[in-house]
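Dear Dr. L.,

I hope this message finds you well. Following up on our conversation about the binding site, I have prepared a predicted three-dimensional model of the protein together with KE4. For your records, I am including the exact sequence and ligand specification that went into the calculation, followed by the structure tokens. Please feel free to forward this to your student if that is useful.
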Amino acid sequence: MNLKKSAQALAEAKKFMPGGVNSPVRSFSSVNSNPPFISHGLGSHIFDIDGNSYVDYVLSWGPLVLGHAHPRIVDALNRQIARGTSFGAPTLLETQLARLVNQIFPSMQVMRMVNSGTEATMSAIRVARGFTHREKIIKFVGCYHGHSDSLLVKAGSGAATFGEPSSPGVTQKTAQDTITLPYNDISAVENAFNQCGEQIAAIIIEPVAGNMGLVLPKENYLRGLREITKKFGALLIFDEVMCGFRVSLGGAQEKYKITPDLTCLGKIIGGGLPCAAYGGREDIMRNVSPDGKIYQAGTLSGNPIAMTAGIETLKILLEDNLTEKITAKTSKLVEGIKKAAQIANVTIQTPQAGSMFGIFFSDKEVTNYDESAAANHELFKKFFLSMLENGIYFAPSQFETLFMSAVHTDEDISRTISTAEKAFEGLK
Ligand code: KE4
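The resulting structure of the complex is given below.
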């Protein structure tokens, strides 16, 4: 595969940006390779500046559930852009998107639009602390909620106490208010609450985890979290930035029938434009400025362009009950990849949650970060590079999740399966 122009572009980009990228995972450093520079996308495909084309299962890390350059979204954006891009003043579009989100996520009685998942989770944590007047939060190893300081914290030495910064620049003082526990282990949560439950403002969790590879919650795990937070007066925050609109249209809270106190959304809510939201119980959200004292703000929050893309995306998802159809496409692909691995006598795990799916080179189900880290990453890298060289664009890290869109065709799926067969054969 010719990637000459991308290599030149990367060298130039590195002069101005760390790793030549604006988000680390795009550097392909996890797979010891260099990224193609993308010139454009259309439907289920992206095209790089060397003229190579790829069936895309990254979809901008989830947002493009309707594929690239969907005609209805492009048309709506063109009409809106001609009317101005941002006013820093309320518009009808924000209420229209909020109403659609409330229809799909009824637990989000009141919400605030922001510009990224990081902003959404950072704000939700502040609201939880401000509402409960408590300072500690619980997160889980392997869950990623964006890069705000309180959430860049790894497990401390003491099981349920004092987190350690997971990045330079996060202070020890900040980290010690975050307790980081193993995912899918309800007893660890019970221990933490028994030790310092009255100090815990909230649990924040990816109810279906997509940042350690795809890891599903164990039976009754989420219900256990709901019960223990209620018992101790802590809030339950579902970070559905990735799994929202995918594990089912109404996210994990609809699929598992658990009502969180606050929900964070991102990615699909903006249809590929910078947009996210946090929201939940009215009695909590009425404490957010200007109704209440908990401050949060943003110059481009709710901007008309992102609102337009989000509105069109959610309207289309609602119109044709697309989520189930995309899930069916995903199941067809996952079954095919599973069979391809069996034929090649390669052992993999292929978790699926709606239109999200993953591949672990592991001989047992992956239920937490340690098991994900123990999977065979060398085999993953070889598999990934073989797929990429043959025009299938998977996520360049074992710790990421893959996504299906409404516009992937049967031809895309069968081509992906046959390419996987060749890739698995090449691993032997
Ligand atoms: P952003 O700030 O990147 O919009 O959202 C942060 C975030 C929050 N919560 C969850 C569950 C997320 O998955 C994310 C971001 N996801 C990553 C992919 N694993 C975005 C890709 C990247 O970091 O470049």
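In brief: The radius of gyration is 21 Å.

With kind regards,
A. P.
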